[in-house]
Amino acid sequence: MKTTPSYTVIYSDDEIVVLNKKSGLLVAADRYDAEAPRLDLLAEKEFGSLFAVHRIDKDTSGIVIYAKTPEAHRNISIQFTERTVKKTYHCLVNGHPAWDNFTVDLPLLPDGDDRHRTVINKKFGKPSVTYLEVVGHCGPYSWIKAFPKTGRTHQIRAHLQSTGFPIVCDPLYSGNQKPVRLSDIKRKWNGDVYEERPLLNRLALHAYSIEIAHPKTGEQIIFTAPYPKDMDAVRNQLAKIFKIDPLA
Questions:
Q1: Are strands 205-213 and 61-67 parallel, antiparallel or unpaired?
Q2: In angstroms, rounded to a whole number, what is the distance separating the alpha carbons of residues 85 and 120?
Q3: Rounded to the nearest 10 degrees, how much is the dihedral formed by the CA atoms of 58, 60, 62, 66?
Q4: Measured distance CA(230)–CA(199) in Å, rounded
Q5: Short-list 74, 55, 75, CA closest to 65
Q6: Which of 21, 29, 211, 216 is disulfide-compatible with 86, CB 3.0–4.6 A?
Q7: What is the CA radius of gyration of the chain?
């Protein structure tokens, strides 16, 4: 895998390129911040002209697919429209859901308030479905796998907020933006609280895997994106302490 400060190349051929992006990068142009760093512009320096076929949030890390040709773009876009693409996200949430599996089926309206958040709106919202699976509880947190059936802006974040278990460090949908610190989860911690650096201080949401039919061959392919360092540090510590690992 080739790695840059902004992304890692997971796969590339004549039709598509699959990248693992860091948190903080837009996937394509944004109408609210034209100057924000963009993954497509950075990747085009390496791969030439690219076509966006889907998006993930700027603050979400993980897997992104671009098409290299108009034909591949058309093919994969149809897969997304017909909802045959399978996506899996991993996230750390505040609190402990009482359920193991839960389906959120609530219509969402993007840009629905003055903070440009996606809101639940049964009158004007678009049908939106997310399947949720609890991996396990870890101190004040829980690991959850999310399988969005639809692809609305901020869908997983808004749907998890609706359940009462917002994603850790979510600046828009969580009232608790407290970073994850080792001192908060490890009983016998002997460090200096004034010098301690957070394990994670950004949105704890990672686009972990995606399955598509290859636009040229039709073969079903699953791509996975390893956790970035900050999220993997949290995973490692929580696994050591609570014996719960979303990658196990």
A1: parallel
A2: 24
A3: -30
A4: 6
A5: 55
A6: 211
A7: 18
Element (H, E) at 209: strand 205-213
List pLDDT tens digits, range 104-129: 999 999 998 988 899 999 999 999 99
Check if the beta carbon of residue 216 is closer than 8 Å to that of residue 70: no
The residue from 57, 59, 170, 230 that is catalytic is 57
Contact yes or no for 21/39 (Cβ under 8 A): yes
**Is the pLDDT score of 35 beyond 80?**
no
- The pLDDT value recorded for residue 4 is 72
Q: What is the DSSP letter of 73?
A: H
Instruction: Report the distance separating Cα 183 and Cα 199, nearest Å.
Output: 10
The percent of the chain in helix, strand and coil, each rounded to the nearest 5, is 20, 30, 50
H/E element, 48: none
Alpha-helical segments (H) within the chain: 39-47, 70-81, 155-163, 182-185, 229-242
Domain ranges (residues) in the chain: 7-242
Whether 30 sits among the annotated catalytic residues: the reply is no
Report the sign of the C-alpha dihedral through residues 85, 57, 196, 166, in that order: negative
Tell me, which fold does domain 7-242 have in CATH?
Pseudouridine synthase (3.30.2350)
pLDDT tens digit sequence for 70-83: 999 999 999 999 99
The tokens describing 170, both together, are 């979510």
Q: How far is Cα 23 from Cα 20, in angstroms, rounded to an integer?
A: 10
